[in-house]
Design a protein that fits this description.
This protein has 411 residues and is α/β, with parallel strands linked by helices. It is 30% helix and 23% strand. It has 12 helices and 18 strands. The strands form 3 sheets. Strands 1, 2, 3, 4, 5, 15, 16, 17 and 18 form a 9-stranded mixed β-sheet that branches. Strands 9-10-11-12-13-14 form a 6-stranded parallel β-sheet. Strands 6-7-8 form a 3-stranded parallel β-sheet. Helix 6 (202-212) runs parallel beside helix 9 (253-264). The protein binds (4S)-2,6-dioxohexahydropyrimidine-4-carboxylic acid and zinc ion (2 copies). One zinc ion (ZN) binds at residues 57, 59, 89, 274, 276.
């Protein structure tokens, strides 16, 4: 299959060209219009081809909470949003604390996933040996502040041990707790790469910016930001209650501006959604009982929300592509050839209509939860087609089940 006359944008290039896909790979890229193509083809005039987006932080709730989401509905929502790879978090039921539970989760993902996937391991009390022996995961997730589920770890000696054996550690930590974790990590000699999930505060961006100035640490520290922390403040929480309630909590305008500064100067490495669906009933009940239910869906709205900001700011789309895929490939040491439009790379791609202007409407989204905190928001850009493993899996609101989704390989 050829995609013809399309604007190719990845972290390295922005030009018009043609792409041939064969056997799940990008086989040929030509700059000239190939006049003799009679093969199956997609006309890409006016469209943009990006590497499929990577969302390294989702909660697809499978197993255990499949009334909120499951691997099928979650990955469908992902591909409708141009996301071709996700990493699922360990606060499922049972939590992903042992290799055996991880293997069971792998079977579920293999049977249901419509896009590529990786599965996080969880740090729990007494599972240090399991962490030591975990295989092929993006990292171990360590919860140091309140979250959905009972995964918070308070014992600092355990943090130390996890840093020592963890290979790569992703933190759910906020503000002072994050600063404290960094102190301990440094005391231990920064033994593993450390990643901060869902940055929400200026202090976190400032600290990571300082750490990155140290040549010995720059390749060991990373951070992600979510659309909700970049686009909303506590004012939305006050106005919309449960539907804008998540952890970390929405912060101030000053924090939002610091996050965008962090995006601009690349202190923030990539975007992630923390897609955390709950049912409407669960959210409504939390409004009444006052007991919070943390988390909002987001995997399908990642692209339009961030793309809209990029267009408004007139920023370089190569950097957009880098932050939507290539940076995650690098930071998580993904072995597969993903995150770029290059010959020999996996054909995980997304075709975008950059001229589209419209609104986010929950009724058009595909998460099982059926609502969005961004209802009615104006957006620029629309996913036209999503290609996973060389096959079109989503096209103008239609899904095609191709069973080409695979587990990601990490080195
Ligand atoms: O808002 C959140 N929701 N934050 C988390 O840390 C967990 C997530 C969830 O699983 O619901
Ligand atoms: Zn978290
Ligand atoms: Zn999360």
């Amino acid at each position: 299959m050829w995609i013809k006359n399309i604007r190719l944008i990845d972290a390295y290039t922005d030009r018009i060209g043609n792409v041939e896909i064969q056997d799940g790979k990008i086989k040929t890229i030509t700059d000239q219009k190939p006049l003799s193509i009679t093969d199956r083809k997609i006309d890409g005039r006016g469209k943009i081809l990006f590497p499929g987006f990577i969302d390294p932080h989702v909660h697809f709730r499978d197993p255990g909470f499949t009334h909120k989401e499951d691997f099928f509905t979650g990955t469908r929502s992902a591909i409708a949003g141009g996301v071709t790879t996700i990493f699922d978090m360990p606060n499922t039921k049972p939590a992903t604390f042992t290799r055996e539970i991880l293997e069971e989760k792998r079977l579920i993902a293999r049977a249901k996933a419509q896009c590529h996937w990786g599965l996080y391991f969880g740090a729990g009390i007494g599972n240090i040996q399991e962490i030591e022996n975990m295989k092929n995961v993006p990292g171990v997730k360590l919860y140091l502040n309140t979250t959905t589920g009972n995964l918070k770890m308070d014992d600092k000696n355990q943090w130390r041990e996890i840093f020592r054996v963890g290979k790569r550690v992703s933190l759910h930590a906020e503000g002072d707790t994050f600063a404290h974790a960094v102190e301990i990590w440094l005391e231990e000699g920064a033994p593993c790469p450390l990643h901060l999930c869902h940055a929400s505060l200026k202090s976190e961006v400032d600290l990571v910016r300082e750490l990155k100035k140290d040549r010995a640490l720059v390749s060991k520290i990373s951070m992600e930001a979510c659309p909700h922390h970049l686009l909303m403040t506590h004012k939305e929480l006050e106005a919309y209650g449960a539907y804008c309630c998540m952890k970390p909590v929405l912060a101030t305008q000053e924090d939002v501006e610091a996050l965008w500064k962090g995006v601009e100067d690349e202190t923030i490495d990539f975007f992630a959604t923390d897609h955390a669906p709950h049912t409407k009933t669960e959210k409504e009940n939390s409004n009444q009982t006052g007991i919070p239910v943390y988390g909002i869906p987001g995997v399908e709205t990642l692209f339009p929300l961030i793309f809209t900001q990029w267009i408004e700011r007139g920023w370089d789309l190569k950097k957009f592509a880098a932050m939507m895929s290539q940076k995650a490939v690098k930071i998580f040491s993904i072995k597969d050839k993903k995150g770029a439009i290059k010959e020999g790379f996996d054909a995980d791609l997304v075709i975008i209509d950059p001229e589209y202007h419209g609104k986010i409407e929950a009724k058009n989204l595909h998460s099982k939860c059926g609502w969005s905190s961004y209802e009615g928001w104006d957006i620029v850009g629309r996913v036209e087609k999503t290609i996973v493993g060389g096959a079109v899996v989503f096209e103008n609101e239609n899904f095609f089940e191709r069973l080409l989704a695979r587990e990601i390989n990490f080195s």
